[in-house]
Amino acid sequence: MGRIYLAALGLATLLVAQGARAAGQVAAAAAGIQDGNRASNTAVTARKQPGQVTQAVFTTGIKHHEPVNNISVLTNKHRHVYFFTDLRHMTGQTVTHRWTYKGKVVAQVKFKVGGPRWRVYSRKTLNPAWLGEWQASVVDANGITLGVSTFEYSPAPAASTTPHQGSVAPAAPASHP
Question: Are 109 and 128 in contact, with CB atoms under 8 Å apart?
Fold first, then answer.
């Protein structure tokens, strides 16, 4: 009878030790620690982030997949403007750049996101008479706006008509058909 009791006590000790190890594995998993070659589902879940727009800016150009500047005002001597976005964790989704002028949608450009970090831009040719506020939005496939940016398209300063001493008036530009 004594040996059975010791065996039962030994089994109980073994079960308590295994329970503690299992509890330790659960705690390690919750903290994002890997146990040997096994990664915990909790750690994977903790790293997964929802998609987001980390940058949405207007610029006058793109160089090496980045905007050359970040504008909020653009004069109408410029005829083109770019809307640049940096998207994260949206692989496989479709996003739209929705261009708006005076409250009316004037262009929509759809993109398929091809990786965990995806930089995309769309370009708009502007008529110098289209002065005022422009807006571009990043919209997901469900119609949810993920980011918005605006810029003011304003008249270029008038050229000075007073000739400076010692300067020569510029020649009239040649017209080309």
Answer: no
pLDDT at 120: 97
For residue 141, the surrounding DSSP H or E stretch is none
**Strand duo 73-75 + 145-154: pairing:** parallel
DSSP letter string, 95-108: EEEEEEETTEEEEE
- pLDDT tens for each residue of the chain, 177 residues long: 444 433 333 434 333 444 444 444 433 333 333 334 333 333 333 344 578 999 999 999 999 999 999 999 999 999 999 999 999 999 999 999 999 999 999 999 999 999 999 999 999 999 999 999 999 999 999 999 999 999 999 999 887 555 555 444 444 444 333
Please state, in angstroms and rounded to a whole number, the distance separating the CA atoms of residues 42 and 29.
6
Distance CA 147, CA 87 (A): 10
8 Å CB contact between 88 and 117: yes
| DSSP, res 144 | -
Alpha carbons 140 and 121: distance in angstroms, whole number: 15
Asked if 54 and 90 touch (Cβ cutoff 8 Å), the reply is no
